[in-house]
Every structure is written in structure tokens, then in C-alpha cells.
Automatic annotation (TrEMBL):
Residues covered by the UDP-glucose/GDP-mannose dehydrogenase C-terminal domain: 328-452
Functional pathway: Nucleotide-sugar biosynthesis; UDP-alpha-D-glucuronate biosynthesis; UDP-alpha-D-glucuronate from UDP-alpha-D-glucose: step 1/1
Keywords from the UniProt entry: NAD, Oxidoreductase
One Gene Ontology biological process: glycosaminoglycan biosynthetic process
GO molecular function: NAD binding; UDP-glucose 6-dehydrogenase activity
Protein name per Swiss-Prot or TrEMBL: UDP-glucose 6-dehydrogenase
Transmembrane segments: none
Species per Swiss-Prot/TrEMBL record: Dioscorea cayennensis subsp. rotundata (White Guinea yam)
Gene3D superfamilies from the UniProt entry: Cytochrome c1, transmembrane anchor, C-terminal, NAD(P)-binding Rossmann-like Domain
One Gene Ontology CC term in the entry: nucleus
Active site: C272
Length: 480
């Protein structure tokens, strides 16, 4: 029986290994992590992450050929193939701080693999890493005196949260990069055989190591670039009377462009886009490619601009101040169908509103109060550095209340901001919300989930990203 061990039981390691175990009953898969809490959750009925379809997959395989353990060294020692799926955050200090990837977690995993191994192994980069990382990892692993050989592969993960199980069951492609040596190609074939249990052969791409590492960063940069492009256009739509949903629809009908990832929003969030583009920018700069670096940097700048623009729109619409006013925030996760709040635009919007002295009442169907309070108290990039989080005091941010009901959040509010596109926000009784709000009642839709005309009929002053402005807001724009 082939044995797989995955180091890192997070958003990637957990679901990815669960699907491998589901599709390959003849392979034993053990997911290990240094976090006892995380492993305990994976072994309980309350999984540590919310992902549609994940519970069923774990229930079917756990205890059969899928295991979760904190005994990292034992399972690394026993494995034939080791996936490394640890976090690769943005550095917060030292050389490249604020841009470069912090490979501390990856490096310590590599040293541990080198220390405990007693037989040849395939080590797979599952985490997103800077191009050429495999070269450094090879040096750590193969500089041992035990005569053991390690083959390093790059197998970046392309799943998106909220659709992870579907993405894993039917991937657009699986990418495997390896050395062009006989050992390298043998390792590539071994990993390909694992995926071939359920992924059609023409969807498994084989490339060199550096192409695979770079393709992951570039894929995320392209996706994020589309969102920044449409968000930049949304500002122009508001200034001209065009409607960004109509513009995006027409543009996306061109088969060369395609319809996906053209939804204007309050800004993209999530643990990957910003981190990976900053990483790409740093790599370009390190290679003396300042113009290329600046090109990609602009994707982040537009995203920051879009989040600021939203906050400014809220404040300027509400008589230029939200001081002492109650703002209801509907949705805190970075997208629907996940409880993940890493780099969610809601953090920047809430901090912006708190900066103008608003009182905020937040509702999200999947995010706990504890998580929201922690997110609002921490510094940029700290979420991915457990060491910084330990020093965070548990005090809650004043002027923030978290509720488990959208109507309660909006009760007595002066304005409502929709920051996540949860389906349930389309079905809310907006008449009831309007009746219980202060007047004039404002609604700022950061995800274009509501019908602005219907809400205007109820009496709301409505702002939707990139869509024709309410006469009230138009007058304010003209005046400013
Ligand atoms: N989240 C996504 O949707 C996604 C998608 C594709 C790729 N990625 C990439 O995958 C990697 C992991 O992302 P994630 O979202 O799963 O992160 P995560 O923080 O959810 O999980 C990482 C886990 O690794 C564990 N860990 C860290 N160092 C360890 C060590 N030395 N030994 C054992 N366990 C260790 C941590 O405790 C944590 O549980 C990142 O590089 C990320 O960029 C993420
Ligand atoms: O048209 C769109 C599409 C997305 N978003 C936002 O963009 C962010 C990212 O969304 P999405 O890409 O769906 O989720 P992630 O889980 O961050 O997945 C991305 O990042 C992963 C980590 O690298 C990759 O594996 C995936 O392929 C890539 O889609 C979210 O805030 C979305 O709300 C928009 O604003 N408009």
C-alpha cells in the first residue's frame, strides 16, 4: 500500500487529502499538523473549516484510509509521498517585508523531513511558493549523510474556497512539475498515477519545476487582475451612468474574454490573491524587472482603492460623517459559502468606518464573534503568523457588536453595508429592515446582490457598485 503523508491540515491539506483518500481506497493518507486543536477538530463531527460537501467525504473515508494526527514525525517517516501544505505567509519583517513569502514554516518542515527519514521519498510542494523554492528545498533535503534521495515535485493547488470539493473532484487541470532527470520523471509518474485514479489524463499537465511554481502565482495574478479591471471600470460607470453589470456582461460574451470573474465588488479578499501577487512583485523586483513588478502592483493598488472608495461613499453619502451612527454589516467572510475571513474586504471597510467613529453591528451566517473581534484587532498579515497571534490580547474592539440575525443587526441602523454575497441576502425582507431603520435609510451593496430599483421603491437610498447612482448620491457626487 502506498502511504501518503500531508504536512498541514488547513484549507488545502484537509480537503485535498480527503478527496485523494476518497478516490484512492488503496492508498493510506495521513494528514498531520502541529496544531492539536486543528487535528482534534478534524477527528470530530465539527470540522475546522466549513466547505460544502466536505463533511460527507471525510465521513466516508476517515478511519478507512484517511487519518488525522499530530504525530508528525512518525507519519513522515512511514510515508512514500509527502505533501507539504503549510502556510506561506507574507513576511512582516526583515528583507522583503510586506511582499516576499515567509518560508519559515516550509523550511522547518523540510528540516524535519530530512531528520526523520530513513528511506527515499517524494516530497511535493502543495503550498504556493516563490519560483525556485524547490531548489532551496532540494538543498536542505539532499544534503544529508544518510544516502537517502528525495525527489522534489511542484504540484500547486488551484481549488477555490466554497467550491473546494467540486474543484478537487473535477479539476480544470492538475499540474505536476519535476526535474527532467530519470529520478525526477519517475517521481512525476508516481504522483500522476495517484491523480489518474479520477482525473482524465489530458487534464494532468507535466512541466518543469519552475514553470509549475510560477504558473500558480501567475494564475492567481490573472484572476485578481480581472477583478481589479472590472472594479476600475465600476468607478467609471458610476461617473458616467453606465452599468458595470451590463458592461461586464457584454464584454464577457466575447469568447476570448469569457464571462467568469467579472463581478464588480467591494474588492477581492482571501488568503491568496494579495499574498501571491505581492510575492510575484517581489520576485520581479529581485530579478531587476521593475516595470513588470509595477504592472502587477497596480492590481493590488486598485483593490485598495476600491475598498477605500466604498468607505468614502458610505461616509460622504451619510452627510459626511458616520460618527455616532449605527451601521449594519451583512457578511464578513471573504466570499460566500465559507467561514474564512482571511484578508476579507470587510476588515478594511469596518476599520474605515470605525475610523470615522461609527458603531458597527455585524451579521455573517458562518463567522463567529470571536473571529471577527480578532480580525478587527490584528495588524495586516498577522493572521498567517501564529506567533504574532499568540501575543494578541483577547479584548474586543469597542463599538462592534456581532449578532446571529440580519434583522437584529439592521435594527435601528442608519445604514446597511452588504459585504459578502451570501445567497440569503437576496431573500431578506427588506421592507421589514427598512421599517426598523433610522430615516433616511441607506443601503450600500458591495456585492451587487440586491435589486436597487426594488429597494428604492421601498424608500431606501441605494448605492450599488458601478451602477447608476441614486439621485441623492448623484447630487453629492456632483457637489464634491
Ligand atoms: N486556502 C486556499 O484556498 C489555497 C488554495 C491553493 C493554495 N493555497 C496555498 O496552500 C498553502 C496552505 O494554505 P492553507 O489555506 O491550507 O493554510 P492554513 O493556514 O489553513 O493551513 C496550514 C497548516 O499548516 C500547519 N503547519 C505549519 N507549519 C507546520 C509544520 N512545520 N508542521 C506541521 N504543520 C504545520 C499549520 O498549523 C496550519 O494548520 C499556502 O501556501 C497557500 O497559499 C491555499
Ligand atoms: O468576479 C469576481 C470573482 C471573485 N471576487 C472576489 O475575489 C476573491 C477571491 O475569490 P475566489 O478566487 O473565488 O476564492 P479563493 O478561495 O481565494 O480562490 C483563489 O485563490 C486560491 C488560492 O491560491 C486559488 O487556488 C483559486 O484558484 C483562486 O480562485 C473573493 O473575495 C471574491 O468575492 C470578486 O470580487 N469578483
Amino acid at each position: 500500500m502506498v502511504k501518503i503523508c500531508c504536512i498541514g491540515a488547513g484549507y488545502v491539506g484537509g480537503p485535498t487529502m480527503a478527496v485523494i483518500a476518497l478516490k484512492c481506497p488503496s492508498i493510506e493518507v495521513v494528514v498531520v499538523d502541529i496544531s492539536v486543536n486543528r487535528i482534534n477538530s478534524w477527528n470530530s463531527d465539527q470540522l475546522p473549516i466549513y466547505e460544502p460537501g466536505l463533511d460527507d467525504v471525510v465521513k466516508e473515508c476517515r478511519g478507512r484510509n484517511l487519518f488525522f494526527s499530530t504525530d508528525v514525525e512518525k507519519h513522515v517517516y512511514e510515508a512514500d509521498i509527502i505533501f507539504v501544505s503549510v502556510n506561506t505567509p507574507t513576511k512582516t519583517r526583515g528583507l522583503g517585508a510586506g511582499k516576499a513569502a515567509d518560508l519559515t514554516y516550509w523550511e522547518s518542515a523540510a528540516w524535519m523531513i530530512a531528520d526523520v527519514s530513513k528511506s527515499d521519498k517524494i516530497v511535493v510542494e502543495k503550498s504556493t511558493v516563490p519560483v525556485k523554492t524547490a531548489e532551496a528545498i532540494e538543498k536542505i533535503l539532499n544534503h544529508n549523510s544518510k544516502g537517502i534521495h528525495f525527489s522534489i515535485l511542484s504540484n500547486p493547488e488551484f481549488l477555490a474556497e466554497g467550491t473546494a470539493i467540486q474543484d478537487l473532484l473535477k479539476p480544470d487541470r492538475v499540474l505536476i512539475g519535476g526535474r527532467e532527470t530519470p529520478e525526477g520523471q519517475k517521481a512525476v509518474q508516481a504522483l500522476k498515477e495517484v491523480y489518474a485514479h479520477w482525473v482524465p489524463e489530458d487534464r494532468i499537465i507535466i512541466s518543469n519545476l519552475w514553470s509549475a511554481e510560477l504558473a500558480k502565482l501567475v494564475a492567481n495574478a490573472f484572476l485578481a487582475q480581472r477583478i481589479s479591471s472590472v472594479n476600475a471600470v465600476s468607478a467609471l460607470c458610476e461617473a458616467t451612468g453606465a452599468d458595470v453589470t451590463e458592461v461586464a456582461y457584454s464584454v464577457g460574451k466575447d469568447s476570448r474574454i469569457g464571462p467568469k470573474f467579472l463581478n464588480a465588488s467591494v474588492g477581492f479578499g482571501g488568503s491568496c490573491f494579495q499574498k501571491d501577487i505581492l510575492n510575484l512583485v517581489y520576485i520581479c523586483e529581485s530579478n531587476g524587472l521593475a516595470e513588470v513588478a509595477n504592472y502587477w502592483k497596480q492590481v493590488i493598488k486598485i483593490n485598495d482603492y476600491q475598498k477605500n472608495r466604498f468607505v468614502n461613499r458610505v461616509v460622504s453619502s451619510m452627510f459626511n460623517t458616520v460618527s455616532g451612527k449605527k451601521i449594519a454589516v451583512l457578511g464578513f467572510a471573504f466570499k460566500k459559502d465559507t467561514g474564512d475571513t482571511r484578508e476579507t474586504p470587510a476588515i478594511d471597510v469596518c476599520k474605515g468606518l470605525l475610523g470615522d467613529n461609527a458603531t458597527i453591528s455585524i451579521y455573517d451566517p458562518r463567522v463567529t464573534e470571536d473571529q471577527i473581534q480578532r480580525d478587527l484587532a490584528m495588524n495586516k498579515f498577522d493572521w498567517d503568523h501564529p506567533i504574532h497571534l499568540q501575543s494578541l490580547s483577547p479584548t474586543s474592539v469597542k463599538k462592534v457588536r456581532v449578532t446571529w440575525d440580519a434583522y437584529e443587526a439592521a435594527n435601528g441602523a442608519h445604514g446597511v453595508c452588504i459585504l459578502t454575497e451570501w445567497d440569503e441576502f437576496k431573500q431578506l425582507d427588506y421592507q421589514r429592515i427598512y421599517d426598523n431603520m433610522q430615516k433616511p435609510a441607506f443601503i450600500f451593496d458591495g456585492r451587487n446582490v440586491i435589486d436597487p430599483e426594488k429597494l428604492r421603491e421601498i424608500g431606501f437610498i441605494v448605492y450599488s457598485i458601478g451602477r447608476p447612482l441614486n439621485p441623492w448620491l448623484k447630487n453629492l457626487s456632483a457637489a464634491s
